[in-house]
Design goal:
It contains 5 helices and 42 strands. By secondary structure, the protein is mainly β. Strand 19 (233-242) and strand 20 (245-257) form a beta hairpin. A 6-stranded antiparallel β-sheet has the order 8-5-10-3-12-13, with no helix packed on it.
Amino acid sequence: MRKNNRFGAILMAVLLFGFVANAFADSNKRLIYSLDRGFGITGNRGNIGTPLKQDYDVAIRINDKHFVGMTIAAVRVPIDTMKNLSGLKVWLSKELKLEVVDGKKINKPDILSQDVDMAQGWVEVPLAKPYTITDEGVYVGYSFKMDEMDNSNKRPVRITTELHDGGLFLHTSRSYRSWTDVSDQCSSTMQVLLDGAPKYAASVLAGSTSYFGATGITNPLTFYVENHGATGVKSIDYTYEYNGNTYTGQETFNDELSSVYGVQTSFEIELPVVDKKDYYPVQLKITKVNDNTNEDTENQLTQQVCIFDKLPKHRALLEEYTGTWCGYCPRGYVGLAAMNRLYPDDFIALSYHNSESEKKPDPMEVMPGSDYPSNITGFPSAWLDRTYQVDAYGGFDASSNQLGIDKAWKAVSGLLAEANIDVKAELNADKTAVEAKAYVNFPLEINNARYGVEFVLVADGLKGTADGWTQKNYYAKGKNGTDFSEPEFEQFIKTDGNVSGLVFDDVAVATTRLTGENQYMPETIEEDKVYELPATFKLAKVKNTSGENIVQNADNLRVVAVLIDYNDGTVVNAAKTLRMGEATGIKGLDADEDSTPVAIYDLSGRRLNSLQQGLNIVKTANGRTSKIIVK
């Protein structure tokens, strides 16, 4: 599932990730158009290409009303190596065209083409004739020849894994014989320098599709500011209307937003206390940028806020995509094991296994990759709530040797959920079927709803002795580092390239999503009504893609219930059975009769006078403890 990259930015701000201002930006002169905007793990940089000796044409498309009337003054091209590359050109074209010359298809731009001296690094090319963008849009590109192919230049196109419409078009002399749009896979990192942009311009964006809060307390509300101007954004002034009153505020950013079009950062407002649960619109407008009038036409929005009497408990769902043939996939194995150790009651994971081929089968594969609930372009991969792409060990840093998935999971779990969900499951008497039931309730009435529950049967303790159960391991003998923070990594670092005898947990072995048995909520959801939704898994039908029964011990089965918003396919909330016959007991902090907080502790066990930023352990009068994240 392809998600808007702004969602990655939401989690970056929660985790205090910043975007480093572009070194080329001159905030007083020009706006930089770049598709490399620093959006978390989805903004990883890399290189692509096919290991063949071939010539390359690379393009992006600028086709947005914001740029009509602006002038392209220069283009910057990223060149990682000059070895055996030559003939660099920068060009503009209204359409992508090819012309046959001497039997070869040659790029034929129709606006301009300039020869450029090849250089390593960023090659800045002032256009001999600057071009004013029209409402037709324009393709901006560069081309080069490969005189010989070697290990240094076999992937010569610099990219970011951020996804943008018009982000990358490729034509090569051998692999891509026609112009091909690969924007659904990655984007070019080339930069386009524009004159004529407003000097001070900032757009405001919603931090989430839905906001929730509680009566009787102030509620934080996150928005995003996106730079559309030729000046870096140091501060903003804003006004907002809420519950019949108008408020003003100013936000100064620790890290200035550079003059790269589309870079974002978050800011937070505190909504005043209201005593009645209801839907409240918040109308917010950014009035100034750096103490100057905001010139952006998209400087305001209205966001609906749902205020509850009590807040639903949110547990983020981590879905991992792995395979025993995958040498980097031990990261996910360790990440899930560490999270289950640290948060045994709250952490919910689904591990989807994949067979690379018939020659390298994974006996835990129960569905082809085309049936995965998220868009997977490689292994290992993982998503939180089918919205935020992460690494199942490093969280938002896929290259980290330190556990980071805990921070990412806490951040997503700290976002408020629209509804409570609980699930209970039992084996029938002869252990041939699992009967499950989910319990869902919404604190407010919802009309025109599109919610449903997917049930996933999960197996723990899976193991085997055949070759397919042996995990490929690229961390053997410390080849990819020895400083991993979690003890579960030692079994991979201290062994060889193939690890046998592993026990696999959290393995998704069946889902109602693929049998057409998902359960759906009514279009009108009543306030505080508990909806009971059933599901049945017949164990004889739970098989892997080779047709083999994958259930090894029925007592080691669990059920995960996933509440889904079918407007966009994202996860609203999730629940798991801790063991057969025992419900999760997912409730909001105030769900019990006497839930008055009597003590607050930090993770070190120190008693606090009040909630602090980060994770708090709250003990209530009914004897329960809850974890509360304060952003």
